[in-house]
Write a structure and sequence with these properties.
The chain contains no helices and 3 strands. By secondary structure, it is mostly beta strands. Strands 1-2-3 form a 3-stranded antiparallel beta sheet, with no helix packed on it.
Length: 44
């Protein structure tokens, strides 16, 4: 979690592979999530 706000949440993640005791970065994620529950104009 990078920053959690009332409406937006920002997150990052990293995935490492380990081979012979050596770590290597193999994937990165950056995500922005928006909370929409209880917002005007949004229906199920």
């Amino acid at each position: 979690m990078v920053k959690a706000g009332r409406t937006l949440t920002l997150a990052t993640a990293e995935v490492f592979a380990v081979s012979d005791g050596v770590e290597k970065l193999c994937a990165m994620l950056t995500a922005t999530c928006m909370t929409i529950a209880g917002r005007d104009g949004v229906a199920d």
